[in-house]
Amino acid sequence: MEKLQAALEKARKTRTGQGAMVPARHQLQARPAETVPETDALWQALAPFEVDERRLIDHLVVTREAGAAATPFDILRTKVLLQMRQNGWKRLAITSPMPGSGKTTIACNLALGLGRQRDLRSILLDLDLRDPSVHRFFETEPPHGIGEVLTGAVPFARNALRYGDNVALSMARHPETDPTRLLLAEDTVDMLDAIEAAYKPDVMIFDLPSVLVNDDTRAFLKNADCALIVIRAEDTRFAQFDTCEREIAEHTNVLGVVLNAYRYGDSPREAN
Ligand SMILES: Nc1ncnc2c1ncn2[C@@H]1O[C@H](COP(=O)(O)OP(=O)(O)OP(=O)(O)O)[C@@H](O)[C@H]1O
Ligand SMILES: [Mg+2]
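C-alpha cells predicted for CobQ/CobB/MinD/ParA family nucleotide binding protein (272 residues):
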C-alpha cells in the first residue's frame, strides 16, 4: 500500500510538471489571475475590430463559431489550455522547422477559439517580424505596428486591436529591418512583462518564424513558457523536425507537435 501511495505521488508530481523548465519570472513573482476593474478598463479601451466571417474562412480561420470545422482546433485549444494551466504557463510560442507549415493559421484559430471561452483573456502577438502575416489573415491593419511597441515608441494600447471582449491582436504593418535584434532585446523582455502585468491575459500566443531559417525564434524563445511545433504532412522531413525539436527544447518546454494538413484526415490533427 505504501509503495502504491509513493508511486501515485510520483506520478502526480510528474503530471504537475515537475522537471519542466520553470521560467525565471515565475520563480520571482506570484501572478495575479483575478480580474480587476483597472484591467477591465484597459481591455475596453483597446480599439475593437470586426472581421468578415467569409474572408476569415478563405484564410482557413474557422473557430469564430463552434462547429465541425472548428472542432479539431477546439480540441487542440483545450489540450493546450489544460497542459498550460497544469504547469502554470501563460506564454505559448508557435513555431515550425520550416516555413509554410501552418503556424499562423493555427495561431489565429487558437486565438479565436480561446475567444469563445468567455472567462479567458488571450493575446495573439505576431512576432514573425521578418514576414508578418496575422494582419493579412484578419485583413486588418493596426494603426501602429508591433515593432513600435517592442521598441517602446508606441504603447501597446495604440497597436493592439480587440476582437470581442477578450482577445487582443498585436499585429504588424510591415516587416522589421532588424528583427533578431528586437527579439533578443532586453527591452522586449520588459515590454512583454509590462503587457502581461497590465492586461493579465490567461494566454499569450506568439506567432513566430520557423526555427531552421534564421535566428529569430532562437533569440526569442526564452520569453515563452512553452512551444507548439507545427509540422506539415508530406512536407516536413524527420531530420528537420528532430533538429527543430532539440533546438526548442534547449530554450523552453516543448508542449507538443501538431501534424497539419494531414491528407487522410479532414482537418489539422494533433500528433503529440
Ligand atoms: N490544414 C491546411 N490545409 C490546407 N492548407 C493549409 C492548412 N494550413 C495552412 N494552410 C495554408 O498553407 C499556407 C501557409 O500557412 P501559414 O501562413 O499558416 O503557415 P506559416 O507556417 O505561418 O507560414 P510562414 O512560415 O510563412 O509564416 C497558407 O496558404 C494556408 O492557408
Ligand atoms: Mg506564419
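The chain is about 45% helix and 15% strand.
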